Amino acid sequence: MDLFLTLLMTVIRAYSSPRTASVWTGTRYRFEPRRRDRTRSGQLLTSRVPSYIDVSLVKFFIGTKMSAVVRKHGWIPVVLSSVQVRAQPVIPQGPLTIHTRVVGWYDQYVEIWHTWEDEEGAEVLQSVYLTRVTHSGPDKVTGATMLEALGEPVVDMPLSPAAQRLLSDYLMVKDANQKRKTMTQDYASSLKLKEQP
After folding, report:
1. Distance CA 131, CA 85 (A)
2. What is d(CA 47, CA 84) in angstroms, rounded to the nearest whole number?
3. 3 state SS of 153
4. At how many degrees (to 10) do helices 66-73 and 49-63 cross?
5. Are 106 and 155 contacting, i.e. CB atoms less than 8 angstroms apart?
6. Rg for the chain (alpha carbons), in Å?
7. Cα 42 off chain centre by
8. Mean pLDDT, residues 77-81 taken together
9. pLDDT at res. 106
10. Which helix H or strand E contains 57, and what residues bound it?
């Protein structure tokens, strides 16, 4: 897929359309995968799935005005982890739609779903993204912070079980990395002390 041209066209179309989408209802990116994005048997290459999700995310950020809010506050969205569940064994040929929307949040962690649908509207693939926003300030950017900045009501939408598992795994790895970093710093400090006369 020529990702640059696809992204460019998506940006132009998104800015040319009404940007009134809610983060909860989300946006829909309709497309038909190009021939070179498929195998000889017609199956969509697995490596192309994240690329199409990226394009859908761009449309979502523009359509919900999240892109303007992110630029205004100097926020940087980060994908922490993701999981994909197939509702159909293969991604069918023909037009596809990716429905991108926020479905839950906890503290600074936001859950985004990318639901792939076939031409008849049947679910093909569910991709769950666990994300958060970083910035240079001392305060955390929570889900409530983002909703307020978007002018949307702050509603309590807990993370799904899938996102809770992603968050648990992420925090476990983060904690292990932090402990390893502390141990390395302590070891380096002890060596420095031993080198002193």
Report:
1. 18
2. 13
3. coil
4. 80
5. no
6. 20
7. 27
8. 95
9. 97
10. helix 49-63
